[in-house]
Design brief:
single chain, alpha+beta, 5-stranded antiparallel β-sheet, 2 helices, 8 strands, 30% strand, rod-shaped
């Protein structure tokens, strides 16, 4: 009796399954890399957008100021606090706080209360900002998971007689300290620098 049944042999089935497994693993690798690079691009875009918002906010305040109060003594470079006096006499203060183990680094903007005996050393060191004497407003996204973290920064002030004060703002931003760990979820610090004159 002759068997006319046509079918696949065991070897042919194993070879077919092996080829499909190889194609599947290559496709999965391509899709994973595509998703990872897209995620990293989104993180970099968010950090750059947040940095540009910080620059815009600070430039607006500097241009609308009469003079720089702090730093008030040489050297005028590398300061962590910048205090501006507006034309109405009010003060605007920016200060840089670096990251800690549990908090993102951030740049804060506040308005120290004016009193007849205000001392520039207190205003420059943030010692007068307690309770209701000033309003505090971080101008960076401080969400530890989805926000950004200021890794370093400083204010440099250039004073020349006969000219308006100029301020150089320098800071570095990266993604929040609580974001997912791993190379694909980390953004190298992005540096931002600008120089603006008071008007």
């Amino acid at each position: 009796m002759i068997n006319n049944f046509k079918g696949f042999t065991l070897i042919e089935v194993i070879i077919t399954i092996s080829i499909l497994a190889i194609i599947g693993s290559i496709s999965a690798g391509i899709l994973t890399r595509s998703y990872t690079s897209s995620n990293k691009s989104n993180l970099v875009g968010k950090v750059k957008q947040n940095g540009q918002n910080i620059i815009n906010t600070m430039e607006k305040e500097i241009r609308g100021s009469e003079r720089v109060v702090c730093p008030d003594s040489a050297p005028f470079t590398g300061a962590q606090t910048l205090v501006l006096q507006k034309y109405d006499g009010s003060l605007v203060r920016f200060f840089i706080n670096g990251p800690t183990a549990y908090l993102n680094g951030f740049i804060n903007q506040d308005t120290p209360a004016l009193n007849p005996s205000w001392d520039s050393s207190n205003v420059c060191t943030r010692l007068d900002c307690t309770g209701a004497t000033c309003s505090s407003n971080p101008i960076t996204d401080t969400d530890i998971y989805g926000g950004t973290s200021v890794t370093s920064g400083s204010f440099d002030v250039y004073k020349s007689s006969g000219f308006s004060d100029a301020v150089t703002i320098k800071f570095s931003l990266t993604n929040g300290i609580g974001s997912l760990k791993g190379y694909e979820n980390q953004v190298a610090p992005i540096n931002f620098t600008t120089t603006t004159q008071v008007r």
